[in-house]
Amino acid sequence: MSVTVAKRTLLLVTLLVAVVAAANAWLFFGGGQLGTVLGVPPTSPPGASSGRDTSDDVDSSLGTVWAIGDSLMVGATDLLKEQAPGIVIDAQQGRNFERGIAVLTSGLESVEPDTIVLALGTNNGVSPEQINRAMDLAAGVDRVIFVNVVVPRQWETETNEVILGAVTEYPAATFVNWYAEAAGKQSLFRSDGFHLSSAGNTLWVDLIVAEILG
To answer: What's the domain count of the chain?
Structure first.
């Protein structure tokens, strides 16, 4: 092989390597037309959108969302996470509002979320003093969403009145009116009248997610 042919061969190899490198860089940092020309599907860089509509994802559209609840939320955890990707859930069977305040206190020591959901009150109700303490703790939070209750116990009416009062008193407070949607509809509950059936679980989660996204 002559020196001239060898130089031309080396030049062609060098150009080919440069084209391949440029193509890989283009594909990694944006894809687009070059990927189509080369017959390679465009790829996305780490963290870029996959093309899926994320406008309704809790984590992408509304920042950090925390949900604190009792056994109703325990049963709804999987569905909540499915409908509200990114939501952080702390739920425990038998939890009353006072224990919920303890969870809130501990969590706010490290991170302040944008939205807090408090689905409590089924176990022993809630008092105005407890509401005030919760709202004082969440003073820097954009929204605090309460979920009122359907529970065949003496504290049902008072609990729902206290929650309504919180919404009236605190601009950051809103609520899911579970009572208005579910009271008297036996198909939404198990035999005890407050734990949720499959249909009740779905509706309960739908209402909470709608309020988060609203």
So the answer is: 2
* 77 lies in the same domain as 174: yes
Among the listed residues 46, 38, 4, the one whose alpha carbon sits nearest the alpha carbon of residue 19 = 38
Residue 63: left if φ>0, alpha if ψ -120 to 50, beta else—which one?
A: left
Q: What is the pLDDT of residue 214?
A: 87
At 61 the pLDDT is 61
Assess contact for 65 and 113: CB atoms under 8 A: yes
33 and 62 within one domain: no
- Ranges of residues in the chain with a pLDDT under 70 are 1-62
Question: For the domain that residue 159 is a member of, what is the CATH number?
Answer: 3.40.50.1110
Model confidence, pTM: 0.73
The residue range of the domain holding 182 is 58-213
Spatial CB neighbours of 183, under 8 Å, sequence gap ≥ 6: 150
Q: Which amino acid is located at 79 in the chain? A: L
